[in-house]
Amino acid sequence: MRYNLLCLLIFLLLCFDMRAQSSIEYLGIDHGLSNDFVTDIYQDRDGFLWFGTFNGLNRFDGYEFKIFKNNPLANKSLPDNRITDILEDQTGNLYVATKGGLGFFDMDRNHFTRIDLVRGGAEVQPIDFSIHQLEKDQDGQLFATSGKAGLLVIKKTGKDLTAHTVPLYISGKVSDQAYSVSSICKTFDGRLMLMIHGVGLAMYDRKNNGIQVLVQGDFNATLMTASSDGGIWFSNGWSVTHFDCHANAFQYYGLENGLSNKRIVNLYFGQDRKIWVCTDGDGIQKINMDTKKIEKNTGFDEKKLAGNAVVAIYEDTQGRKWLGTIRGGVNVIDPQKGKFQLVKHHYQDNQTSARDFISVLEQADHDHIWVGTDGSGLLKWNIKQKVFVPYPNSSRLLSERAFVTGLIQDDHHQLWIGTYDSGIFKLDMTSGQIKSYTCYYPQTEYVNAASWRLFKDSRKRIWASTLGGGEVYLFDVREDQFKPLNLPIYDVLTFFEEREDILWMGSWSELIRLDLQTRQFKTYAVGTPVRFIKQADRHHLWIGTEGGGLRYFNIATGQSKIYTEKEGLPSNTLLNALKDDFGNLWISTYHGLSKFDTKTRLFQNFYKSDGLQSNQFNYNAALKLSDGQLVFGGIRGFNLFHSRDLLVHAVFPPLKLTQLQINNKPYGSDKHYGTDPLNEVSKLTIPYSQAVLSFSFAALDYSFSDRIKYAYFLEGWDKDWNYVGKQRAAYYSHLKEGIYTLRIKSTDANGNWNSSERTILIQILPPWWRTGWAYAGYGMAVVAALYLYFLYVRHRALLLTKLKTAEFERDKENELTEKKVTFFTHIVHEIRTPLTLIINPIKELLKDNKDQITDYEELQDVYRHSKRLLNLVDKLLIFRKSEGNFDELSLVHLDIVRLVREVFLCFRQIAHAQNISYSLETDIESYPCYGDLEKLEICFFNLLQNALKYTQDGGMVTVHLNRTVTGIRIEISDSGKGTPTLLKEDIFKPFQRDFSSSNTVKEGFGIGLFLVKKFVEIHQGEISYHPNADRGMTFCVDLPQHAILNDEDHILEVSNSAFSSRETMGLNDPVMAEKADRKNSHYVEVSDRLIPIEREIILLVDDHADIRNYIYKLFQDRFHVVQAENGEQAIAILQKIEPHIIISDIMMEGGTGIDLCHKIKKSNQWSHIPLILLTASSSSEIKLKGIEGGADDYITKPFDKDMLVARVDNLIQNRNRLHEYFHSHITLQSNDHKIPVEYKEFLEKVIQAVEAHLLEEDFTVKVLAETMGMSHSNLYRQIKAISGKSANEFIRYIRLRRAAQLLITTKANVNESAYQVGFRDVKHFRQQFTKLFGCTPSEYRKRYPHLKKSYALDGLLTH
Questions:
Q1: How far is CA 478 from the centre of its chain?
Q2: Measured between alpha carbons, how far is 625 from 630 in angstroms, rounded to an integer?
Q3: What's the pLDDT at 1053?
């Protein structure tokens, strides 16, 4: 059994290894390197590292590689991708030697310039052969070695760089033979030593600019270096030779001296003053300068190199070693790393093992550590031998699969082991015997096997905590068992002893302080799991929480100051903590390890890149050894380290720009922005249109670049610093003109900000329109503009003075003209009133038989000339209207041919009287279209009237109608005198008449043709004229059909337009007018069934006594006529009597008829009374105002008396018909009256509304109006108009109507019927019923029983 156990432990030893964190870091193609065959390594003066490979040149800034390669199509690219050497001159220019030539990397770091070879002092040829090495002498002169051109010195010729072969001196003479330089090196005193193939060892003579041979021989050395003692070391690839320049002696190193038999690929003199001999396949050997012996110890594990053929070595100022290998890329040996000793199971990096999941640690003795794992039991580690060792153990559980959570070793060589799933064990380290201990839930027999923490206090007592609601247990030595504390303290995660008998514990959300003597405890709410408790000072504790950061806890007050990620913690989830010998607190987290300086309160964080097992640690896996070493365990093993080794004073790395783009173009592509190297740029001047900037930067820390943080601030644009963490770029666009300062800063590896900043002054030039010259130009332009404005104002003032004078004169003239026209128009209006009193009496006389009238013919002349006078008056009124908005069309359906024929016939009698040949010629029977009948009639009337007026007796007037392409043409020709030449352009202007050619003055005002032209044009037609061949004129009217045919939206149904226009223009003779008036009067006889009333009353309102008297005579036989001179008198009369109709003039003193109309129609008392307006004005605007005011009709003076009588009769009869219909409907009589549908529907709706509220005694007119959704005034007006009754009377009639129905259709008595319709006073009900129906209720039921059947048919029968 023991043998098997021993074999198992030996197997575990073989499976585990211990290693310090590998101090060798690999950089290769996986990290962005162009090729893993690295031929050369160089660091420029800015701090960037350059790697030459067999596939391009690489620049490294600690984060990423920037690659430069050859482009066969670009002459400014790298000469060849196979790099052999890299070197920088004294001015910072970089030279790159390749297998295909030599390239100079321009200052802008973007382009290569190829260097040509000058032979014989004149011949220039490109270098297309291999350049082996580059070197500088003590003066900084650059040299290149080659196999074809020997040693080349690089010189600047004008603006170009050229290479020249250095002459070789043999025995004091210049050799005329070409030579090949196989290797070169510079001694510590600045001399250049060369190995010339087939010649020997030589030296460059700076004074003579030639090569002097020191030792002749057939040396075939391709590798060469110099040591600090002045010695020269060279190799042919298989052995090493040392040449002592002082003793002029050689010393050889070969196999017999212990040198490897592998091919030598590099010689290097290191900072350790040893010659590094690098082989291809056998690693590195060193030759000790003091002992002259070969050593194999390189100071690092060569097995960890990615390649065992090192061909390039570079040691930087911070002690890092950069090794370039043939097949393994770049290997970095960093002395600042590898301070964390890592112990882990020997698996591949991408594999895990349960043995690496470290759960708890405990020191066994000075040389051993107990290691508890999660699932692989208990292990024992030998610190000195750095291996796992076996230990006596009789339990397979502990050695293979236990989840160990607690370890305590007492002073009796007993190891207490807590497990999460199997309880607590005690291991006797001498015999290996295991004893198990059980923790029971208090007062039960249930076992809690979830042991979490074991703790030993100052009195050597063993404490244990359990999870899952478990208590705290204390080991009783006498009874040899764990006993519960029997206090309500559960799920303790950690213990801490402040002093004897004062114990602190942390649980899932609380901090507990327990006094063991008094057994009193106090809890503090934390809110997150408490994972560790450490003493800070006498009055404070450090409390580590899982998720809540670090708390600086005041014991007295219970208050805490919290430190989180914001203050520098790598994570707010803290797991465990240890104090080192310097008072620092080392805290393990889920994201690395943090060192907290309790004095400065600063954090320094470490991660996997620093050598940690991983970034994730475990809760209980923390241990401080007796020698001061700290041990932390995680999920990939555990780390051991001395804190003093990690107290590194980090330096601030140089902050450099890695890229600058202006307007998305790299810096250097445009020399207008500067020619300085990128990291020497201190000022940029950029045009406004290209102010788009992007910066990339890096702090060149090649050890801890992942710890560096950055911030930038553009003064003049940003409000404050932009702290961007690890972001290394800044971008600005659309910068305004001005001066800005870009400030960039970084931290060191410890997170301290560097006070030294990288600054660049940036000037954004304004656009040309905002430059100083532009503003000067603007100023001059403003001055010029002000001067021009001054001239303009002065000139304008003069013009305004002249204009005002002219306007004043024109206004005075217009005012005088307007007064004349207004006066004339007023006179015309005044003429219409006496014309009314003249025409109508004469017309009455002419109606009688002419035999009964003396001088009948003279009376006809009087009538005719009165109508002619009216015609002239109306022409003036039409002209007056045409100056306003008379250009609106009232479209109706009409026939142009018929209209022209009717107008033509009106003048037939006049033409016959003057013996004028008067004819109408047309091939068109009809021409239907839409037009304004009145305006077209005026046009044709004026044209025919003018033709007849200016045609002498015996002349000729012809009207011709014919179709055109676009419509119809009406031509009116005459044989008159024509139009004088001087008036041809003005005949269509108003008031133009011919007074030149005849002494005979024709009647008229010269406005006829003006109206014709205006009315034709608003019909989108044209009027033209031309003289006839023999005599007279022809006027042509062209009316387009499309212009007036399709405008149906504006067609009006005007019934009497033709009549009114023709009457206005005097086209009807008295007899025809009489017939027409009788035909259009639409007089309807009053029905015999009208309810008999007294004589109707007419209220006549006019300020003209003659008009009042005339109208009084018209209606005195049939009406009672009440007269009023103005509106005020009319209102006073209305308050006393209620007329059946009102006739009012519009123009009156003391208020217009329209105002009177508004007052009447707004009154609830009078709004139902019909009202007719009379006026001498034919303005449509006056008509519109009258209709809007509520007028029922509108008659223009002079009016026809029969027309006035007919319209009065119609209005009164319409009102009487409504009242009769209402009375019949209410009294339930047969009703054949025809009334408008809207009145009928309104009446039925109101009756229904009243009947729905018959039983409501408080049902009023207001309630009815709300029910109908109408205002009180509108409802009153409608009811009064239909019924002639007030609203209250209307409601009472509806109630009585319903009572009559109840009496016929039900058996209810009179009282019941009265109550059902809302009457509470039966006597009052009987009176009102008798007044309405002409009989008492009882008589009504006896008289009309036959109505029950008709009520049933009408749906009035009550059930």
A1: 79
A2: 6
A3: 42
Distances in whole angstroms, Cα of residue 1090 to Cα of each of 357, 1214, 1217:
119, 12, 8
Give the domain-ending residue among 624, 648, 672: 648
**Boundary (domain end) residue, out of 591, 617, 648:** 648
Burial (CB count within 10 angstroms: exposed 0-12, middle 13-18, buried 19+), residue 127 = buried
Provide the CB-side half-sphere exposure for 643 (13 A, CA): 25
Q: Write the secondary structure of 1144-1172 as one string of H (helix), E (strand) and C (coil).
A: EECCCCCCCHHHHHHHHHHCCCCCCCCEE
Question: What SS3 class is residue 59?
Answer: strand
Q: How many residues does the chain have?
A: 1359
Residues 1178, 1321: one domain? no
Query: Structure tokens of 1329?
Result: 């019923």
Amino acid at 832: R
Q: What residue has token string 């960039």?
A: 744
Name the token pair of 843.
Answer: 């017309």
Do 1028 and 1168 have their domain in common? Answer: no
Q: Which H or E element spans position 10?
A: helix 2-15
Bond from prior residue into 1198 cis (ω within 30 degrees of 0) = yes
Q: Amino acid letter at 962?
A: N
Tens of pLDDT, residues 651-679: 899 999 999 999 888 887 777 787 788 88
Burial class (CB in 10 A: 0-12, 13-18, 19+), 902: middle
For the stretch 395-451, pLDDT in tens is: 887 878 889 999 999 888 899 999 998 899 999 988 889 999 999 888 788 889 999
Q: Which tokens in the block code for residue 1246?
A: 């109101």
Whether residue 164 lies inside any domain: the answer is: no
CATH number of the domain enclosing 447: 2.130.10.10
Neighbours of 492 (CB within 10 A): 27
Q: Under a CB-based contact definition with an 8 Å cutoff, are residues 1254 and 1317 in contact?
A: yes
pLDDT tens track for 210-241:
999 999 888 888 999 999 988 999 999 899 99
**Residue 660, SS3?**
strand
The pTM of the full predicted model, rounded to 2 decimals, is 0.57
Structural domain total, the chain? 6
Based on the domain organization, do 1053 and 1193 belong to the same domain? no
Q: Which domain holds residue 602?
A: 1-23+337-437+580-648
